[in-house]
Design goal:
The chain is an alpha/beta fold and about 400 residues long. Helix content is about 40%, strand content about 15%. Bound molecules: pyridoxal-5'-phosphate. The site of pyridoxal-5'-phosphate (PLP) has 13 residues, from helix 4.
């Protein structure tokens, strides 16, 4: 099919791919082996026998394998309603609604709540699903510098008398930098200028806050935010996401969120996996503690060795390298030594900020962390002159 002569569309695609290759930005699919440092399975639940057992128990002979339709048609079931209730209780909200991915949740939430007459204030490092949801809403947007409260306040003040609803959107733990949003301060600014707050807890769900309820719970502000997005594909080793909110937002999403309305529901047995994962994660205080300790130790070792770990204060630790080729080199050296690490390059991150993203899970040992820093240091010594940032 790729051999079709004279197709300008294929020629354009091939040109773009060559261009990406030349800029060391071409992505390929690979199956990695080795010590997994690219994983979002922060609590190690992906291989947890308790989760497998819960899933297998859900597969009773009479269980239904397909949901048969969207939730608004034939796909709703008591299993999904029940897990939504459980999740709302976990998140500390009165309601929750499940979407089949975090991407679909952010797109559905933002594109339905906001419209062209509204204003949205979005952190410059927010995830692509937030960016795309905002784009789709047509709302007027202000992208404020990452975690910069002064810039955000100036932007809010400037639009204080503008008509339209206002919303601040942020991740709680940022996916590529591993740092945290100043949620309490964002809420105060929102209150001062009449803007609602939405928090994407994807990398905090199960990992941060009391019983892993996220950073909004840790800050004690759940009652004051408009909605929280908790994803299930990371620490919960499942799939999908819950938008946790009050009843109005839930009702509105059921009626307006196109990624909810026009998409087949997940099969009912999958609700059991999420429910089991939630229970395991909520009780994993020891695992959360040891994950935090290993992350602190890795950050300290990398910094002592002269690497730049940015503003990370979580289980996600970037090693800032700047150049695409240098990031690819370090990733390859680590892979050669048995560590599965990916180089993160534009457009995932801004040009000139290519990096390794080390994401720690409870499976990583202190010995592996020491070895990793040793490999990084040796890899740097092979580079002459050292071009790392
Ligand atoms: C902050 C954030 N929000 C949303 C998503 C999307 O979640 P999902 O992978 O479930 O689509 C991701 C995925 O990486 C993420 O990092």
């Amino acid at each position: 099919m790729d051999g079709r002569e004279g197709s300008s569309l294929l020629a354009r695609m091939q040109g773009e791919l060559s261009d990406l290759q030349m800029r060391a930005q071409l992505r390929t699919l690979e199956c990695h082996s080795g010590v997994n440092l690219s994983s979002n399975d922060y609590l190690g639940l992906a291989t947890d026998p308790r989760l497998k057992a819960a899933f297998l128990a859900a597969l009773q002979p009479n269980c239904q394998m397909g949901s048969t339709g969207s939730r608004l048609l034939s796909g709703n079931s008591r299993d999904w309603e029940q897990v939504e209730e459980e999740f709302a209780e976990f998140a500390g909200t009165s309601h929750a609604i499940y979407f089949s991915s975090g991407y679909a949740a952010n797109i559905g939430l933002l594109s339905s709540l906001l419209g062209p007459a509204d204003w949205v204030f979005s952190d410059s490092l927010n995830h692509a699903s937030i960016i795309d949801g905002i784009r789709l809403s047509g709302a007027r947007k202000v992208i404020y510098r990452h975690r910069d409260l002064n810039e955000l306040e100036d932007a809010l003040a400037l639009r204080d008398n503008e008509p339209g609803c206002k919303m601040i959107v942020t991740e709680s733990v940022f996916s590529m930098d591993g740092d945290r949003a100043p949620l309490g301060e964002l809420l105060l600014l929102g209150g001062k200028y009449g803007a609602e707050l939405i928090v994407d807890e994807a990398h905090a769900t199960g990992v941060h806050g009391p019983q892993g309820r996220g950073l909004a719970a840790e800050a004690g502000i759940v009652d004051n935010v408009l909605a929280l997005v908790h994803t299930c594909g990371k620490a919960l080793a499942s799939m999908g996401a819950f938008v946790c909110s009050g009843s109005t937002v839930k009702q509105f999403l059921i009626n307006r969120a196109r990624t909810f309305i026009f998409s087949t529901a997940m099969p009912p047995y999958f609700a059991y996996q999420i429910s089991a994962a939630l229970r395991i994660a909520a009780s994993a205080d020891l695992e959360r503690c040891s994950l935090t300790e290993v992350a602190e130790s890795l950050r300290a070792l990398l910094r002592e060795a002269g690497f730049n770990t940015g503003t990370s204060s979580s289980q996600i630790i970037p090693v800032m390298l700047g150049d695409n080729e240098v990031a690819l080199y370090f990733a390859a050296e680590l892979r050669r030594n048995g560590f599965a690490v990916r180089a993160i390059r534009p457009p995932t991150v801004s040009p000139g900020t290519s990096r390794l993203r080390l994401s720690l899970t409870t499976k990583i040992t202190r010995e592996q962390v020491n070895e990793l820093v040793g490999v990084m240091t040796a890899a740097r010594e092979k580079l002459a002159p050292a071009p790392y940032a």
